[in-house]
Amino acid sequence: MMLKNALRQTKKILKVVSINLILCLSILSLVEGLSSILLLFYKISKIQPMSEIRHTEYDELLGWVNLPNVNIPNMYGQGIYFRTNSQSFRNSEDFSINIPPNKVRIICSGDSFTMGWGVSNDQTWCQLLTSINQRLQTMNMGQGGYGVDQVYLWYKRDGTKFEHNIQIFAFITDDFVRMQRAKSLGYGKPLLSLENGELVNHNFPVPRGSFLAPKITEGSRYIQELRFLNLWQTLFPRKMETGNKYVVQTPAIAVKIFEELAKINQGKNSKLVVVYLPIYSDYYLNESSFWRQYLQAELEKRNIIYIDLIAEFRKRMPNEQVETAFLGGNGHYSVSGNEFIANVLYEKLLSMPEVAVILQQYN
């Protein structure tokens, strides 16, 4: 009898202990979950949206585009200003539709390396070309975060309104990767596909939602740190996107874009010049090899002018000066980096008879 009572009492104690243990674990889990969520919101609250937010607005075709008539005196630091004209280009003056007398007009199309992230308007390589040849008038159609697709679509919509003699279409390797998704850094963008030999935009109009709350959009990366999401992804891993047709089609889409640009320029009596810009890692690594070789071969077949500045960068830039050419040692071009690109690019342009005759027509 006493043994039965003892067993009964033991079971009660174990039951109470078990319930308390479950309650404690539940409370700890709740606290852990709430702490993770609170930490997530704290991190999001501390985010400084990317600098482009200060001078861009939502655009249903491009995702984002420069605001007109922006003037930010200390955009990138004391005295480092950012200005756009009424046509939303990174220039201090507006442009007439027609080319001014005795001027050679160049449109510089590209991403933030063309826009000149981190330097003032007059220190971008595009603007510095006018210091080398004062007969030049350059229109800066560079935009931060753009892929090759967005650069093309912006020029096609807004750049073709203007007469010009040369279009320099510049890019870095990442600009091809950006073509493969309908979002860049969390923000919506166009997504081009190739169907029956024609370019088709599969993300028009670009959804506006991600532009309404920039902090939440850019803070979405912190959601990946939530323990629950990590557990879910461990239990139900996503399949690799090896079948993503946009990835597979990227090389063909890029070449089609350049074919279209060549036709547009020919119709405007202008020359298209495709320029591969170097980034810091290109000096040491060969991550860009596929695209450099592919474009060299494909553009040569189509008689499209192609300048590989990565080769020139490696050949002409002394090793001890590489870091000084980039902000922070490995970011965007510094003032000296922009000067290097402008000087080498202009020299390469002069070495091509069909371009040199345009640049020197008023000598």
Q: What attributes does this structure have?
A:
single chain; 363 residues; alpha/beta; Rossmann fold; 2 domains; 5-stranded parallel sheet; 12 helices; 13 strands
Strand arrangement in the largest pleated sheet: 6-5-7-12-13
The structural class is alpha/beta
CATH top level assignment of the largest domain: Alpha Beta
What is the string of helix and strand elements?
A: HEEEEEHHEHEHEEEEHHHEHEHHH
* Straight-line distance between termini: 118 Å
Estimate the helix proportion, in percent: 40-55%
If you average the pLDDT, what whole number results?
Answer: 88
Cα radius of gyration in angstroms: 27 Å
Approximate strand percentage: 5-15%
**Count of discrete domains:** 2
Strands, count: 13
